[in-house]
Structures are given as C-alpha cells and as structure tokens.
TrEMBL record:
<dbReference type="InterPro" id="IPR052509">
    <property type="entry name" value="Metal_resp_DNA-bind_regulator"/>
</dbReference>
<protein>
    <submittedName>
        <fullName>PadR family transcriptional regulator</fullName>
    </submittedName>
</protein>
<feature type="domain" description="Transcription regulator PadR N-terminal">
    <location>
        <begin position="18"/>
        <end position="91"/>
    </location>
</feature>
<dbReference type="InterPro" id="IPR036388">
    <property type="entry name" value="WH-like_DNA-bd_sf"/>
</dbReference>
<dbReference type="InterPro" id="IPR005149">
    <property type="entry name" value="Tscrpt_reg_PadR_N"/>
</dbReference>
<dbReference type="Pfam" id="PF03551">
    <property type="entry name" value="PadR"/>
</dbReference>
<dbReference type="InterPro" id="IPR036390">
    <property type="entry name" value="WH_DNA-bd_sf"/>
</dbReference>
Length: 219
C-alpha cells in the first residue's frame, strides 16, 4: 500500500506539471513542452524521467484531458502539439487546489508543483489555503511529542526509529516557518494572481522560441 501511495502521489504531481505547462503555452509541441519542463529541473525535484514526458502527454490525451493536434498526420511525439480540453481545465484546477490546500509532508514535490501555478488562482484563495496549511502543520506539531513518546515506549520498535520521526518533525517546523512568512508576503501584495496585472513578463527570446517548431530530439 505504501508503494501505491508513493506512485499515486508522483503521478498526480506529474499530471499537474504537464497540464499546467500545456495551459501556459498551448498549443505547444511535445518537444517544446519537454524542453520547458527541463528548465524547471523537474527531473530532480519531481522525479520525472525526461523521456516519460511524451508518454505522459499521450496518456492525458487518451483520457480526454488534452487534445492532440497532429502535424501532417504523423505520430512523432516531438511533432504533436497539445492543448487543454474542458476536462483538462477542470482536472488542472482540481489537482492544483488539492496540492495547495493539503499538506503532504512525505511528498514536498506537491507543494513545489502548486507554487509553479498558484498564480492562476485568485489572491484571496491562496491566502486562505496558506492559513489552512498553517493550521494543519500546527496541529501535527502539537501532537508530535505524544507520537514520539509512543514510539519510544513501544518495546517492539527499535530505538533509532524515533529519529525518523524527528527528521519529519524538523521538516514540518521548517515548512511552518516558511508558510507563515509566505502568507505574510502574499497578504502584503507580493506577486500577481488571477485578475491582477502581471508582475513579470518573459523576455522576447522566450516568446520567440515558442513560435518556432524545433527539430524533434534525435534520441
């Protein structure tokens, strides 16, 4: 069951990243989307194999979340462009809200992915979601000493296991501190969200390369 949960969490993060990057640049070719995600270093923090991006795009299209636009009737991944369907738009926001509103300490990649797209939500929702995360983290940390005591008093649990709990608690403390600070910055007007003027524009070279059809990868 643990393996299933890890697999499901990884797949949901991948799905949000693929839907989100298509939503930004649509319609965009598979190779362009792959190249963009590689600049985000997703292979490191989201555990995404670069070669699996094409497979993920095709899977999302098969499930009705993306529309495939073939060039000259071909089936080469780098030459297929994608755009979100209505179901894809719904799935995108469902995944985004789920990851933003719910703390998952064992899968920090979920919040990393949510941060990449939180600007597509309105500011008031992001503020409320961060307050919900703060409450969740505070509750976990408040119960922490009792969980640690149970581990230490359990004769069937090796002594060193308590350190596994402590490192998780340290991470939760760190995220709580960051979330409080981030919440303050958002309430003070930092960054731009849906319905607000953009606070950042890509440089011309970024825009230009999305208007070009690159050669597909050779390997």
């Amino acid at each position: 069951m643990r393996v299933v949960r890890i697999y499901t969490a990884t797949m949901s993060t991948t799905r949000l990243l693929l839907l989100g990057v298509v939503r930004i640049f649509q319609p965009a070719y598979g190779y362009q989307l792959r190249r963009e995600l590689m600049t985000w270093n997703v292979q490191a923090w989201a555990n995404i194999n670069p070669g699996s991006i094409y497979t993920g795009l095709r899977t999302l299209a098969k499930h009705g979340y993306l529309l495939e636009l073939e060039q000259d009737g071909g089936h080469r991944p780098g030459r297929t462009s994608y755009k979100l369907t209505a179901d894809g738009e719904t799935e995108y926001f469902s995944l985004l809200r789920g990851m933003l509103w719910t703390v998952d300490g064992f899968h920090p990649d979920k919040m990393q992915a949510a941060l990449a797209f939180m600007w597509s939500l309105r500011r008031d929702e992001v503020v409320d979601a961060l307050e919900a995360r703060i409450s969740q983290l505070e509750s976990w940390l408040k119960s922490g000493p009792y969980s640690e005591r149970q581990i230490r008093e359990d004769p069937g649990t090796p002594n060193h296991v308590v350190e596994m709990f402590r490192i998780t608690t340290a991470r939760d403390n760190g995220e709580l501190e960051w979330t409080r600070q981030f919440h303050t910055r958002i309430k003070s007007g930092a960054y731009a969200f849906a319905g607000e003027p953009a606070d950042w524009k890509p440089y011309p070279g970024m825009v230009t390369h999305w208007g070009e059809i690159p050669d597909p990868p050779t390997s």
